[in-house]
Amino acid sequence: MQPSLRKGAISIKKSIYWIQMVGLLSLFWVTLFESFTPVVLISAPLVSALTLYITETLLLKQSLYDLYPMNVLWVVGYFLRLIPEIYRSAILLIPLIVTGKADPEIFDIETTLEKRWEIALLANTITLTPGTITVNVEGRHLQVLWMNPKAETEDGISESIKGKFERRLERSLWKSF
C-alpha cells in the first residue's frame, strides 16, 4: 500500500473517531442538562468539539486517537453489557448478605492484558460488579476481595472474577476499529 493511501485511511479513521467522541460527549452533555431544548442540542456538539480540541492541543500535545485508538461505539457497548452484570451480581449477592452466608476472601489473579489503561479498566469493572473489589493492582497482578467464592481451583476463581470482561477487552478493543 502506498504511504499516501495509508495516511488517508488513518485520517479517515481519526475523523470517524472524532465524530464518535463528539457524539458520545454530546450525549453526556444532554444527559447532564436533562432537557432536549434547541439551545442544549446545538451547544452539545459545539462544546464537545471544543473540549476535544482543547484536550488534544493543550493537555495531551498529541492526538487522542493516537493514545487511545479504540472504537467509541465498542466502549459504549462494553458498558451496556456491564450494567446487566452489575444488577445480576447484586441480585445474587443480596441473599448472602441478608442471611450472613457471605464468605469474603482475597485472591490474587493475573491478567493477560498488557496496557496499563486496559488493566485499570478491568480492575474498575471488577470493582463495579457487586461482591468483588479490586484491592490492589501491581503490573498485571490484581488482588481482589470476593464475597462469595464459588470456584475451587485457582483458574476457576480467576475465570469467575475477570474472565468475561477480560475476553471482551482482548477481543474487541483494538480489532473493532
Give a nutshell description of this structure.
With 177 residues, this protein is mainly α. It contains six helices and three strands.
**Whole-number radius of gyration?**
20 Å
Rough shape? globular
Q: Could you name the ranges where pLDDT drops below 50 across 5 or more consecutive residues? A: none
User: Strand-and-helix sequence, N→C?
Assistant: HHHHEHEEH
Tally of helical runs: 6
Helix content: 55-70%
What does this structure look like?
There is one protein chain. This protein folds into 2 domains: 3-67; 72-172, no CATH class. The chain has helices at 3-33, 38-60, 64-67, 72-99, 116-128, 154-172, and strands at residues 105-110, 132-138, 141-146. It is globular and about 55 Å long. With 177 residues, the protein is mainly alpha-helical. The chain has a 3-stranded antiparallel beta sheet, with helices on one face. α1 (3-33) crosses α2. The chain starts with a helix and ends in a 5-residue tail after the last helix. β2 (132-138) and β3 (141-146) form a beta hairpin. Helix content is 67%, strand content 11%. The chain is built from 6 helices and 3 strands, in the order ααααβαββα.
Topology:
Elements: H1 3-33, H2 38-60, H3 64-67, H4 72-99, E1 105-110, H5 116-128, E2 132-138, E3 141-146, H6 154-172
Antiparallel strand pairs: 1-3, 2-3
Helix pairs in contact: 1-2, 5-6
Give descriptors for this structure:
mainly alpha; three-stranded antiparallel sheet; 6 helices; 11% strand
